[in-house]
Structures are given as structure tokens and as C-alpha cells.
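mind reviewing this fold:
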Amino acid sequence: MDPISAVSEELAEIEGQINDIFRALSNGFQKLEKIKDANRQSRQLEELTDKMRDCKSLIKDFDREVKSLENGNDANTNRMLNDRRQSMIVQETINVGTDTSAALKAQTEQMSRVVNELDSIHFSLKKASKLVKEIGRQVATDKCIMAFLFLIVIGIVSPNNKDIRDIPGLAPPAMNRRLLWNRY
């Protein structure tokens, strides 16, 4: 028979619940290390934190029950109960530390992914900026070419331009050209 069961069935029940939570926390922390998705890690951490709150509440209940039974027990029983309580507190402290460490690890990994995304965005922005500058230069070059072509066309087509010789094989430009729709 468990020594705590001999002292109080309620203490034994509380201790059993605490031990169940400690096992669940241990399994939860092992699962957490295997999870790579930040959202799933966050949910798992919330679940573990809730279990730790429950455990803390049960440890307080255990402590209250130990204090209520303290006067009716001998010194060895009180020492054994206090040792169990201290052991639970130490285990709870270890679990909080593990939870904190896991949360920090998950956040560090998430920050690393964010930094990588920012680097990728920065690189993309640099490439886009270079591309915009190149397109701007091409547009400016195209506009210059179009302006020169416009000037050439104006110089060639101008009816007052007598310096341009007729091109052999082509008829000279008609000076008094009438459009078809003006005939009628």
C-alpha cells in the first residue's frame, strides 16, 4: 500500500492526478519538439500551459490537505508528505522551465523564418528596383528614338522642303491632292 494512501485517500487521489499530469506534460514536451509548424506549436504550448496551471492548482490542494493533516500525523509522516510536496514543486518548476525553453525555441525558429522571409523580400525588391530602372532607361531610349524619327518624318514630309530630291521610281508628291469624299 502506498504510504500516502495510508495517511489520506484524498492526498493519494491528488497525487495520482498530479502524476498523470506530469506524464502528460512529459509526452506533450516530446511531441512539441517534433512539431515544425508554428501554429501547431503554439496550440501545443497553450495546452501544456493549461495542464501546468491545473497541476499547480492540484499541488496547492495537496499542500492544503497536508497542512490540515499535519497535527494528526507523526514527524516521519509529516516529513514524508513535505518531501513529496517539495518533489512535486521541483517537478513543476522543471516543467515550467521546459515549457519556457520550448516556447523560446519555437519563437526563435519563427523569428529565423521571418528573417529569411525579410531577406527574400529585400532581395526581390532590389531585383524589382533594378528592373524598373532598366525599363525606365529603355522607355527614355524609345522616346528619344521616336523623337528623332518624328523629326526625320517632319523633315521629309514637309511640302516646303525643296532640298530633298525625288526618289527615282517614285512619283513626286502631289501638291494639290484632294480627298475622295470631298469630290461629291
User: Anything to note?
Assistant: The mean pLDDT is 82. The helical segments are 3-7, 9-34, 38-69, 75-157. The two ends are 124 Å apart (CA to CA). The chain is about 80% helix and 0% strand.
